[in-house]
Write a structure and sequence with these properties.
9 helices, elongated, disordered C terminus, Putative membrane protein YkgB, membrane, transmembrane helix, transmembrane, DoxX
Length: 182
């Protein structure tokens, strides 16, 4: 049985008037620009973190990058070379995302890079979670799951997916997406 408190808490009230129009405009704005904003913010993030790796001691990830790249390349890339290659890859990804040029290539490189970025969670688990609790480095890597999810959204957009706002009440999507039904 539903109490009056539960019923009141679960009732949905559609906004009307100015609030509804503002929400509709906001929804259209998000649908139109959301993927591009995600692409640009990911690009800025990759460029900033990649650029730090060019300067020894500047990147908080240096202690993770070097051993991870050494393991993933079976010792072919070590020390400063591992950092420099990672810096170049991350900056390339950042520039392609920021500019939108060579975007599909940048996204393919990003897909490969994400394997390396997230691999410390497996390869260095004991170092990242001593005693079962995450270190600051573990948290640094763990937040990259959000970057991976954002990359999936951007990749979907690059492959043609679009966010589409819902049709206004009384209107159904037409050939152009939001035309009248009659």
């Amino acid at each position: 049985m539903i109490s009056q408190y539960t019923e009141a808490a679960t009732a949905t009230h559609a906004p009307s008037g100015a609030a509804a129009r503002a929400m509709a405009r906001g929804t259209r704005l998000l649908a139109r620009h959301g993927i591009d904003l995600m692409r640009i913010s990911l690009g800025a993030t990759f460029l900033a973190f990649g650029a730090l790796k060019f300067f020894p001691g500047a990147s908080p990830a240096e202690g993770l990058v070097v051993p991870t790249v050494e393991m993933l390349t079976f010792g072919m890339l070590t020390g400063g070379t591992a950092m420099a290659v990672t810096a170049v890859v991350e900056c390339f990804i950042g520039i392609t995302l920021l500019t939108g040029r060579l975007l599909r290539t940048g996204l393919a490189v990003l897909a490969g890079a994400l394997v390396g970025i997230l691999s410390p969670l497996v390869l260095l688990f004991g170092d990242l979670f001593p005693g079962g609790l995450p270190t600051l480095e573990a948290q640094y890597v763990f937040k990259d799951i959000v970057l991976a999810a954002g990359a999936l959204v951007v990749a979907a957009g690059a492959l043609g997916a679009r966010l589409v706002p819902p049709a206004a009440p009384g209107r159904a999507p037409g050939p152009g997406g939001t035309g009248p039904t009659g």
